[in-house]
Amino acid sequence: MTTIGILGTGRMGVRLAQMFTKVGQPVILGSRDSARSAQIVEGLGQTNLAAGSYEEAASADIILPAMFLRDGMLETLEPLRSRFDGKVYIDISNPFNDTYTDFILPWDTSGAEQIQHRFPKTRVVGAFKNVWWEVFDAPTFGDTVSDVFVVSDDIEAKGAFLKLIANTPFRYIDAGRLANARTIERMTLLSGELGQRYGFFPRMNYKLLGEAKQLAST
Ligand SMILES: NC(=O)c1ccc[n+]([C@@H]2O[C@H](COP(=O)([O-])OP(=O)(O)OC[C@H]3O[C@@H](n4cnc5c(N)ncnc54)[C@H](OP(=O)(O)O)[C@@H]3O)[C@@H](O)[C@H]2O)c1
């Protein structure tokens, strides 16, 4: 079975590790401090969840770095490059600044594109960028299931991702090419601002509404 290597044990890393292991995917949760990942993994008590270093997590079949670009993510990943060349890389990054008021990247690029540019041999799939961390604890709002927008220029990698997420408690929307991450990441910046204004931060999400049109008979 496909192993997912998650690098980083913060809000997103731990929740994604829980979500994937609950649907039966083996996960290696990697940390800068292996003692920290070991403690977290022990606490979660999932048999298909293993603790490790970043090197060990980067050796998994599919990698998912869960750290911030502003914290030097690209530089941290650089020494691991050979371990994830050719693999599907699930990119969840939003290029927030330290105060979460803006992005550290200009409008004509995205975290996803920067990662693909820096690691051209990886197969980047952008996902979960629009999902704030507490939403993982309860992904439905009443009867409404949260959407996850998925972007990639690599159709096969997107397909591999969509297999992985079967039975996870979200609806996945194919949001097209990787450059659409510019919009998705900025949607998250906006939802953060709106959530603060209306008092529901950090439990909010986007839902794409629509009805299939009745096809006219020919
Ligand atoms: N928070 C959200 O709601 C949310 C939503 C969507 C996407 N994202 C994206 O997910 C990624 C992770 O977000 P997060 O909220 O999980 O972050 P976080 O809680 O701050 O955790 C980030 C993790 O990165 C690792 N790390 C590596 N180098 C670091 C450094 N120099 N300083 C601090 N931490 C470092 C740490 O794990 P170890 O110490 O174990 O190595 C840390 O726990 C970001 O790219 C963010 O944009 C977040």
Which CATH architecture?
3-Layer(aba) Sandwich
CATH top level is Alpha Beta
Basic shape: globular
Which homologous superfamily in CATH is the superfamily?
NAD(P)-binding Rossmann-like Domain
Radius of gyration: 17 Å
Number of distinct beta strands: 10
Helix content: 25-40%
Structure description:
- It is built from eight helices and ten strands.
- It is 33% helix and 17% strand.
- With 218 residues, the protein is an alpha/beta fold.
- It has a single domain (4-198), classed as NAD(P)-binding Rossmann-like Domain (Rossmann fold).
- It has a six-stranded parallel beta sheet, with helices on both faces. A two-stranded antiparallel sheet has the order 7-8. It has a two-stranded parallel sheet with strand order 9-10.
- The chain is globular, with a radius of gyration of 17 Å.
- Residues 8-13, 31-33, 36, 66-68, 71-72, 76, 92-94, 96, 128-129, 131-133, 202 line the site of NADP nicotinamide-adenine-dinucleotide phosphate.
- NADP nicotinamide-adenine-dinucleotide phosphate binds at residues 8-13, 31-33, 36, 66-68, 71-72, 76, 92-94, 96, 128-129, 131-133, 202.
